[in-house]
Amino acid sequence: MADRLGSFDGVHRRNLARVLGLVHLEGPLSRARLTSLTGLNRSTIAALAGELVEIGLVEERAPDPTNRVGRPSPVVAPDVRVVAIAVNPEVDAVTIAAVGLNGRIAARERIEVDHLVTPEETARLTADAIARWRAASLRSARFAGVGLAVPGLVRASDGLVRFAPHLEWREAPIRAFVEEATGLPTAVGNDASLGAIAEHLFGAGRGVDDLVYLNGGASGIGGGLIVHGRAVGGTSGYAGEFGQNRPGIASADDRRAAGGVLEDEVSRTRLLEAVGLRAADEPTLAAAIRSALDGADAATVAAELDRQRRILATALANAVNVLNPSLVILGGFLATLADLDPEALRAAMAAQAMPAAVEDVEVRVAALGEDRLMIGAAEAAFAGLLADPLAAAG
Predict the structure, then answer these.
(1) pLDDT higher than threshold 80 for residue 323
(2) Which segment of the chain is annotated as a signal peptide (predicted)?
């Protein structure tokens, strides 16, 4: 009898997770649509939706007006009060956001810093932001957890940051610090790997099973891989470190760092210097580059953009040859490099890749823009809730 009850309970929990996962990924869905997508009967969907409403994870609302004959089906949508806190510590700022279960950014702060933040300081800044939001704009919110997108090697088994070179973190137990400071369950992942997941689920890679994602941030270049529809982390979670590869540079005149790796040559810092800025968020840097291309230093800025684009194309060609993706997605300042001359980047990549491997590859910029790391970190924080709504709700 216990086995039968356990089996029933397991099926029930999985069905709750299926319904919650669908409205999380797809947005509001009618009960009729959920019935079609899951293959469950109408009464089961009604009961599951009602239970998710009761535990505060979804809301049911009246359907939109329709001309169809018969009573329209109620709509099930994520409860917007359920949020995850997303955190991205960088060398020039710590960005913190509250991301709803509906995928919307409910609140965001970019805290600029003039020093390298420590793991302990990151935890404190996160707790302070949560306290401010709880007292004001998010006073009615339910906080599901915290997700951190860290630019470094994050051990998948326990979230330990083994090495974040630009932040100078080594063996940093950031998860424990944040959980102690906030009282919330915390997940930690590599920033680019989480960005790849976000773009795969909600952005430019939605519906694409094999893609390579490269993210360009203040701490350099990271990457993420989706193969056969699944995120690939490698044995310990360190896969995707494209920025640490040593690119082949055809012209000696293009090299700026003797023996440097990709992120030494294709560099946000070098772009900031070219346009005369010390620090900037992504939209500000992109706007400054476009403005500079119309100014007195246009030739200098264009030359730096072309140089970085040539080296990036080599790195992309290597990735295409090894992984044979159907899509390459570029985020951060790499998206700006691509957006300014997409045909040049695609042609340079194709010229260096195997013809058969590159013929079906598309290059796109990240569709989620500066939200991609926040949404990816939130997905890590929501993972437990989405896998077992009853356990997380309890």
Answers:
(1) yes
(2) none
